Amino acid sequence: MDDIRNIVVLTGAGISAESGLSTFRGSDGLWEGHRVEDVCTPEALARNAALVHRFYDERRTKLAEVVPNPAHEALAALDAQWPGELLIVTQNVDDLHERAGAKRLVHMHGELQSALCAACGKAKPWKDALPPASVCDGCGKPSLRPDIVFFGEMPYEMEAIDDALRRADLFVSVGTSGAVYPAAGFVQTARHVGARTLELNLEPSAGSFYFEESRMGPASMLVPELVWELLG
Ligand code: APR
User: Where does the record place the catalytic residues (predicted)?
Assistant: First the structure.
C-alpha cells in the first residue's frame, strides 16, 4: 500500500452496527411495520408528516445511547495522521464519525442532528424532537423537516465526492450493501481512474464483483487492521 496518496472511504450502516444502531437491510428492515423505504420519501412526508418525524425523532434520541466503535476510531486516527488527501463519505446520518474525531467527512444522506427548512433551504443543528410544522428561524415559515436526503432526492456534496474519487489512489467501502445509488457506483468511478478498490463488509454485497479485493468480517476488526497497514 506504499504507493497510496489520496484515499476515499465510503461508509454505510454496517460501520455503526457494532455501536448498536440497526442497519437498513440486515435486520427485517422494518420500523413499526413500515418498510423503511416507505418512510424515507417526500411522498411519505407529505402524506403523514407525524409518522416520518416520529421515525427520525426515535433515531435521533437513540444517538444518546450509543458510542463510536473501533472502526470509527480507526478512521478518525487515519484522518488525523494521513499526510495525503482523505475524504470519508458516509451514507449514515448518525454522528459517530464526528464523535470519534473525524474531520475530513461529508454526510451525503444528511444528518439526524440537523433540521432543514423545506421553504428557504436553511439547515440548522437540531438535537431534540422535531414536531411537524416547526417554524424556521430564517424565513419564519412552519416548514422544518428532518435534514435527511430522502429516496429520489439529490444527495449532498456530490461535486466534492466526485472530485475526490477522480483523484483517488485507493477507494475503500465499509459496511454498505451497495444497494443504493449513487454511492453504489463510486467503486466504478474509482476503478475508472485506476484507483485500487477494497471492500470491508460482513458479507458479500451487491457490489463485491467490482472490487479488486473484498475482506469479509466485522468493521471493528477490519478497519483498524487496514488503518494499521496504511499508517505502517
Ligand atoms: N461490520 C461490517 N459490515 C457490516 C456489519 C459489521 N459489523 N454489520 C452489517 N454489515 C453490513 C451488512 O452485511 C450490509 O451489507 O453492512 C451493510 C449494511 O447494508 P444496509 O443495511 O443496506 O445499509 P447501507 O448500505 O448503509 O444502506 C444504504 O440505503 O436505506 C438507505 O439511505 C439509506 O444510507 C442508507 C442506504
Answer: 109 (proton acceptor)
DSSP string, 67-109: ---HHHHHHHHHHHH--S-EEEEE---SSHHHHHT--SEEETT
**What value of ipTM does the predicted structure carry?**
0.99
- Rounded to two decimals, the pTM is 0.97
The Å distance, Cα 189 to ligand 1 centre, comes to 20
User: Do residues 181 and 227 both lie within one domain?
Assistant: yes
CA distances from 195 to 8, 9, 36, 121 (A): 10, 12, 33, 36
Q: Is 24 annotated as a binding residue?
A: yes
Residue 94 is which amino acid?
D
Positions marked active-site: 109
Q: Which pLDDT tens digit goes with each residue over 161-214?
A: 999 999 999 999 999 999 999 999 999 999 999 999 999 999 999 999 999 999
Q: Would you say 191 is a known binding-site residue?
A: no
Q: What CATH number has the domain bearing residue 180?
A: 3.40.50.1220
Q: Could you tell me how many helices (H) and strands (E) the chain has, helices first?
A: 9, 11
Q: What are the pLDDT digits (tens) for 2-34? A: 789 999 999 999 999 999 998 887 665 666 677
